[in-house]
Design a protein that fits this description.
8-stranded parallel barrel, 11 helices, about 240 residues, alpha/beta, TIM Barrel
């Protein structure tokens, strides 16, 4: 299983939100790229980046920060947040990003999703952000009427290779990953599944690895010192 340490971006800073609440933001560093360098030094091969402003507003204000990390070449970058146009996808991929994550646009604009899959294949992933079993959108500020599992089924039908599934209730809460959810999704779908939200111990990492997940994202637990990155990388293998 790959482990992806996370950098959530707001005004170029590395921050974390509590359950997606922009009013509950903690700033961990002014230079997000410095965290990426530290991840690489610890042995990480991937970094998961989210443009929080973009996710909320449908823009890409942190593009230059993401591009700087991608062009450094030390880590493979996946980026989500506000990627809702052909141009945004192309700009990120041209800047050296390995994988873009579509969220709101994948749910709201099926033709756009199909077009991006046809053009870029496995370099396009989809984020499935779940709140009370329904898909949340627009940086988690809105909740749709679409059940998460039904959305996953549609994504698999369309040929999506990688999905990043977040249990919003666990995000930033240090309550542990929703292992039951990920085990159920892994049993039902053949797509590569990345778990996001609530990974707060090495036991979480091992449980997700043993469940056969493709990847897991490490966020707040790293920034608070609850999990040492090198140990988590070793536990994921």
């Amino acid at each position: 299983m790959i482990l992806l340490p996370a950098i959530d971006l707001y005004e170029g800073k590395a921050v974390r939100l509590y359950q997606g609440d922009y009013r509950q933001m903690t700033v961990y560093g002014e230079d997000a790229a410095a965290f990426a360098a530290a991840f690489a030094a610890a042995g990480a091969q991937w970094v998961h980046m989210v443009d929080l402003e973009g996710a909320r507003d449908g823009t890409t204000p942190n593009f230059q920060t993401v591009a700087r990390v991608a062009r450094a070449g030390a880590l493979r970058v996946e980026i989500g947040g506000g990627i809702r146009t052909d141009d945004a996808v192309s700009r990120y991929l041209d800047a050296g990003v390995a994988r873009v994550i579509l969220g709101t646009a994948a749910l709201r604009d099926r033709a756009f999703l199909e077009r991006m899959l046809a053009a870029h294949g496995a370099r396009v992933a989809v984020g499935v952000d779940c709140r009370d079993g329904l898909v949340a959108t627009h940086g988690w500020t809105e909740t749709s009427a679409v059940p998460c599992e039904a959305f996953c089924a549609e994504l698999e039908r369309l040929g999506v290779q990688t999905i990043i599934v977040t249990d919003i209730s666990r995000d930033g809460a240090m309550r542990g990953a929703n292992r039951t959810l990920y085990q159920a999704l892994r049993a039902r779908f053949a797509m590569d599944l990345i778990a996001s939200g609530g990974v707060s111990s090495l036991d979480d990492v091992r449980a997700l690895r043993d469940a056969g997940l493709y990847g897991a994202i490490l966020g707040k637990a790293y920034y608070t010192g609850a999990i040492e990155l090198k140990a988590a990388l070793e536990a994921a293998v």
